[in-house]
Amino acid sequence: MKKLLIEGEDFYYDANGYMVLTKKYHLEKGYCCGLGCTHCPYDYENVPEPKRSELKQEKEK
Questions:
Q1: By CB count within 10 A, which of 26, 43, 45, 60 is most buried?
Q2: Is 3 contained in some domain?
Q3: Residue 34 CB burial class (10 angstroms; 0-12, 13-18, ≥19)
Q4: Is residue 31 part of a domain?
Q5: Is 47 exposed, middle or buried (0-12, 13-18, 19+ CB in 10 A)?
Q6: What is the dihedral of CA 28, 34, 35, 36, to 10 degrees?
Q7: How many structural domains is the chain composed of?
Q8: How many CA atoms lie within 13 A of 25 on its CB side?
Q9: What's the distance, Cα to Cα, between the start and end of the chain in Å?
C-alpha cells in the first residue's frame, strides 16, 4: 500500500502552484529519480548532463 503524502512534510506548493517534494520525501524514497528535483539530497546523481552540471551550479548560488 502506498503512503499518503502530507502537505508541509512531504511536499508543498510553490508560487506557481506546482507541487514540490521535500528533502524528507526524497530521503524516504531512497534514490535520485533523475528529474532534477529542487530538494534532491543525492547530488542529482541520475540527472543526465548537461542538466546535472547546471543544477549543481544553481544549488551553489
A1: 26
A2: no
A3: middle
A4: yes
A5: buried
A6: 80
A7: 1
A8: 19
A9: 39
Measured distance CA(40)–CA(34) in Å, rounded:
9
What pLDDT, in 10s, does the model give residues 1-52?
Answer: 678 999 999 999 999 999 999 999 999 999 999 999 999 999 999 999 999 9
The residues near 41 (Cβ < 8 Å, ≥ 6 apart) are: 23, 26, 27
Alpha-carbon Rg for the chain, nearest whole angstrom, is: 12
Supply the pTM of this predicted model. 0.83
Distance CA 11, CA 9 (A): 6
